[in-house]
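### Sample
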Amino acid sequence: MSQHPVGATPDRATANSAAPGADAALRDAPSDKVPALRVTDLRKTYGNGVEALKGVSLDVAEGDFFALLGPNGAGKSTLIGIVSSLVNLTSGSVEIFGTDITRRRSDAMRLIGLVPQELNFNLFEKPLDILVNYAGFYGVPRKVALERAEVELKRAHLWSKAQMTSRTLSGGMKRRLMIARAMMTRPRLLILDEPTAGVDIEIRRGMWDSLQEINASGTTIILTTHYLEEAENLCRNLAIIDHGSIIASGPMRSLLAELDVQGFVLDTDGALPATLPVIEGATLRARDAHTLDIDMPREMDLNHIFVALDAAGIKVRSMRTKSNRLEELFVRMTARPEQSA
């Protein structure tokens, strides 16, 4: 059974078909530098009394690659659901490039491409048909849709699979197909909800390249992910949501700079001793017989570490910075009382 895209209803599809190219007109209209997304005092209380969002306010600039992070149950899914018009808000407002989603829902949704975490296309359709039919819901003429589908399937490295049944695709291919489908309407804002969940690291990094290409072409991207390395590598700005409130937001570099510790991984010549030296203020852990983890205060002189290691007979062959700084920041900000007790 085929799936209707977000915001596409029969009436709307008919209206779009009657005005082919309307999506391009909306996309190319001057933005006057309004944010790609503006959320103001957004609140959501479900019927069972659960207050999922407690006055969230957030701006995402046009052209940004933005990470929305938070633990399970923090309010991410509700926020994304409201922005993509799948969940009704209780109060507050959401604007997509200045278009209010409540007053002008159809116009706002035509500016958005959504890649949900769950696969929601017909597994018995061919990738080419999935893309062309999706574009048709938004009034894209078939000739244009076929041209776009070729472009997007090639970008997703799926052109050779265009005429195969989608159920035969690997998990990573299906994920890439979801992104290709979302790009068929040439959205100005692309929302990705856990786009690389369940795929291996090689496929994940290939998808990173595709997303960076999409962003470089001018599409604003909002990413939710539990792979914090992914967010740190891709995103320039971020917000962390917890218990329905934004607890931190700003440029990635600025937030990471607030960490008062820094971490290094040292590769050593020769095996590490059974007992590691004690260095006041620093934490040393052996990853294996030849790899040492060090966490140390930012103000500590690294030479002090090397002198202590040398005195203990540990010779350092190479050093690299840990890549889990965002994870450290995230854990500190979202730690539950029972976790820190």
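The chain has a mean pLDDT of 86. This sample (ABC transporter ATP-binding protein) is used throughout the tutorial notebook.
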